[in-house]
Amino acid sequence: MDREKEISEARYAAQQALSYLRAAQQDLKSAGNWGLVDILGGGMLMTFMKRSKMNRAQQNLEQARYALHRLQKEMRDVDRIADIRIDVGDFLSFADYFFDGVVADWLVQSKISDARRQVDDAIRKVEGILNQLSRL
Questions:
Q1: Which one of 4, 55, 100, 116 has the lowest number of neighbouring Cβ atoms within 10 Å?
Q2: Residues 83, 47 contacting (CB under 8 angstroms)
């Protein structure tokens, strides 16, 4: 397969990954905002809104992971290796619903912040890869 086609496929995978990562970034920002309201006594409705945004972020991250795996494959095809990892767990979500209180809300808010930092880092890495690809 010719190099230009491989580079084009890698660019496309990177752009897809960025699209999903940016959508997740927005969802996590919104979840964080709802989370602050929840901590201040928002109740079950705020918990539901926050969880809804977290679920959307998780869906976008799953799509981003797929695109990132594809990007890694495409980068190997153009003799470059991309090492991108995103680890967003939702093991605290049960606590948010069943033990809705300040401690659980703070723990979930912390996980949202961690996820936002990881997504921001992944976006920077993919943007760097796109930069490299544009110079090939």
A1: 4
A2: no
